[in-house]
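pipeline/complex-builder :: batch 7 item 3
reading input block
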Amino acid sequence: MKPFDYQRATDADSAISLVSGDPEARYIGGGTNLVDHMKLGIAEPGKLVDITRLPYDSVESLPDGRVRIGATVRNSDLAAEPVIRQRYPVLAQALLSGASGQLRNLATTGGNLLQRTRCSYFQDVTTPCNKREPGSGCSALEGWNRHHAVLGASERCVATHPSDMAVALAALDADVLVEGPDGQRTVPVTELHRLPGDEPERDTVLRHGELVTAVELPSLPFASRSRYRKVRDRASFAFALVSVAAAVELVEGTITDVRIALGGLAHKPWRATEAERVLRGAPATEETFRAAADAELAAARTLRDNEFKVPMTRNTLASVLRELTRQEGS
Amino acid sequence: MRLNLTVNGRAMTADDVWEGESLLYVLRERLGLPGSKNACEQGECGSCTVYLDRVPVCACLVAAGQAQDREVGTVEGLADGEELSTVQRAFIDEGAVQCGFCTPGLLVAADDLIERVPEPSDAEIREALAGNLCRCTGYEKIMAAVRTAAERSGGTSGSGSSAGGDRT
């Protein structure tokens, strides 16, 4: 690993000036992804600015019904928060389905959002990868691409976003609060991550030096009936092949409102707006669920090894909707 | 830097520490505590699992600078002198150890589980140990050891070790 300087930030302003003034500097939170990248040679920061002791480690219920999650709240602590378990079970379930206990105890809310793809070619510095080395080519396009994207990919990159938490946040219409050298801004989590396009090296819309300080959840009362289901190769400690985050509002057998996001399918958490459009106002029937999944997956483009993701998504989405609407009606 | 931290209940200091070296390196090479093992160095295998402020983490992913003034519990802190902890004794009695490289991490993870969940189901044991890889045993003996440790702890107040600190 390349040697680097380490500085512990005591307040956000000094952290931001330390990083924004130095193109080689990076923030470090739990380190569960960045430290890996430094050991693998994917990232070689000259300076790490430790933000884990900034005052962003609490979960607050705001007077208007929103919930603000500090950026340094650990994944395991967030999953255990009573307000999250009761009002946003989809988020608690997503958090607990990610990584291992040891990693959830280190990983932060902000860091989880900003983790990078686990594409095996991205992580192997001996192979071409446009995300790691722009212009070098994409090894996954013609390579082993079972885990890769079927929605929103480009000729340059077919990587998927690995986070479970971010899929739940996308379904919940969460906002990301960001501070940078030019002040504060709010980015909807659905707009934080990018599709690869011609610049797969850019995972998010954040600029160098910008710091995630919090995530805010809207009130969304019907999210108390929500689910996260993750399909993977083994029961624990594996990334999603396909995942579904969903919340449904049901009135007398009709779906009056719904939020759905899909994981494991795209370069970003995939908000399923086409499926939502089909479902909203429709009866909660198997036919509706299948039509919703088909509408969303109409744009799917599969690769050699990942065709299975399309029927797997269709079945998983229908199953989650069945479960949510059955429970709501019972 | 001068690193100050509490390890297994004792205040410890190490000088000339590079902030960027891992907590695991500090424990093994500077503080004379080689119980925590160095294997994957990527947070995958769990052999370096220690308590950090009372929760289990992979010490290979924590920078020394991040451990300043914090409380660490290692596998060396599980036993009370020569008296093995309930989890350690159960691992021996059930034959849950073969090469032994993963054992320190598993002991800390199992100690934490029984502290949090005094009567764990098999599913809870499997999930709690998901971040600890063993390439010898096939896990069955490890499962048996954790069940035995939980039974012997009486399903009440944990395993009797104090490595994780007072979490009540």
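note: Residues 86-153 of chain B form a domain with the DNA polymerase; domain 1 fold (CATH 1.10.150.120).
queue -> next item
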